[in-house]
Write a structure and sequence with these properties.
This protein is of the alpha/beta class. Helix content is 49%, strand content 19%.
Length: 208
């Protein structure tokens, strides 16, 4: 069986820091292989989502992040999606997400369901990185609707993705949650099949 893995890069970065592990030490190829081996899946694709700093945030930060993204794009079966790191107001965010949903060319049955689920997930919060989070949520649901894979794995500890995951599950996909223990939402683990990669296992199997 094939699987698509969606990685919330921002969430993973902060959780690794919280565990005392340098994000640059993580081997993403080993990470996705370890997840697939656990479930006996064949990897179809990995989609990695990350916010990009601006030059004004510092040249060192900007160019080191650019190098990291370029290296990630070279990995087999990896697709990288980025957005500029910024703060959106709720009004701007809703307008932007509605425009994105409109561009998906969904059928009349799916469109209102996707629209309600994704817009509800936004809430009334002003938050950095929210734009890339919503892009991940939309892609997750769209892959379930299009039946691109029977197995969809979200690597994130963020409970904000629950509405999108529930909708993907309703559309017939096997939805799996995976994350490191730091910052891993109890609600995610309670609602979905899950795979926690503890610090020892991460060090033994997923570092360079």
């Amino acid at each position: 069986m094939e699987a698509i893995i969606f990685i919330d890069g921002n969430n993973l970065y902060h959780n690794l820091i919280g565990m005392g592990i340098k994000p640059s030490h993580l081997d993403f190829q080993k990470l996705v292989s370890y997840i697939c081996e656990h479930y006996n899946f064949e990897l179809k694709k990995v989609v990695y989502y990350n916010s990009m700093p601006d030059l004004k945030d510092g040249k060192l930060l900007y160019y080191s992040h650019l190098k990291f993204i370029d290296e990630l794009r070279k990995l087999p079966k990896f697709e990288v999606k980025t957005r500029k790191l910024q703060v959106h107001s709720t009004k701007e965010l809703l307008k932007e997400k509605q425009k994105l949903i409109d561009s998906m060319d969904l059928c009349k049955v799916c469109e209102p369901v996707v629209e309600e689920t994704i817009l509800d997930a936004i809430g009334n919060v002003k938050k950095k990185e929210k734009g890339i989070d919503v892009q991940l949520a939309i892609d997750f649901v769209e892959n379930a609707i299009d039946k691109n894979s029977e197995n969809l794995i979200l690597f994130s500890g963020d409970a904000d993705f629950i509405p999108a995951m529930e909708l993907a599950k309703k559309k017939g996909a096997r939805v799996i949650s995976s994350s490191v223990p730091k910052g891993y939402s109890w609600e995610l683990r309670n609602k979905f099949e899950f795979f926690t990669i503890g610090k020892r296992k991460l060090i033994e199997n997923c570092l360079k």
